[in-house]
Amino acid sequence: MNRNRKKNQKAQMEIMGLMIVVILLIVGVLFAVKFVVLKKSPEVRQTFSRTQMASNMGLALMSSTTDSCRGTAVKDLLIDCAEWPEAGGTITCDDGRRSCDYVNSTIGKILNQTLDAWKVRYYVTAGTSKRLDEQIIYFTSAGCTADRDQPGESESFFLPSSRGLLTLKVFICE
Amino acid sequence: MALKMAFGRICEKVNRKAQIKMGETIAIMFIFFVLLVVGAIFYMNLQRATVSREITEAYELRAVELSQVISFLPEAQCTESNVVKASCFDLYKLIGLSKVASTPEGINLYSREFGTTTIRLIKLYPSGGEWVLYDNRKANFTSAPVTNIPIMLFNTTSDKYYFGVLEVTTYS
Q1: d(CA A169, CA B97)
Q2: Residues of chain B neighbouring A64 (CB-CB closer than 8 A)
Q3: Whether residues A107 and A143 fall in one domain
């Protein structure tokens, strides 16, 4: 009886030892995960790259001269579209399309060849109102949408129009 | 005689028990070292992933820096009545730069600023046109990440702006 109890106690002690080793291992792995996997990468560099991307993209987009719309710049088409959204704009391009249609397809084409091709998540909006359904331009990519707050960097460009300030926003998601 | 035999049997029993204990200790040590090695491999893999991510970010930043350097070069800047336009690249100046910077003399001259990189200019909208501005590849490079920077190109003869991309390949 006494020997059995001793044996049981010894087994319990051994199990306790094993438990301590396992707990130590788990704690070690958790520390590794916390400090290595979940370690935040230097934010400044990423933020700088994204800001530069958004800023350059917006500037280059707005200034581009259209190839078949009477030599007008994208920003002029945007302004025209924002001033006459009901009519789809007043400028008629060489192919018969109005400014809203033309600027939408042009920006879409450029974004498709650049940010989409580079697998950068983004959204681009343009409009005189803050409401999403009143935007004259709205492009999104893979889950990066303007309807909710997202982590990332944005750059806004302001253009004067008769309907108020037209805001072109380029947002690059993290 | 009987006492001697009994003593021998006890000794044998004790020896066998000690051997079992030794075996147990060795097994525990073996498992412990296996776990240690697995942990070390896991940690090293994680570290490798982190380092490669940081390297990629550093390359991106280097590419952005390079685009800034190019944008401030008088050989690339857009000017109107001697006034420099911000974030604008003169298309013809860049085409001229591509003819100079790709020669051995050009590489020698620009290697201080651009290092071991390849910088390509792509005119995206309206489509058409690709120029290698600078090409100084590193011999036996292990990786060559590409970073794209959207830029505004100005055609002085037609007074039009184009949408372009500066493609920077950094060799390491």
Answers
A1: 33
A2: 125, 152, 161-163
A3: yes
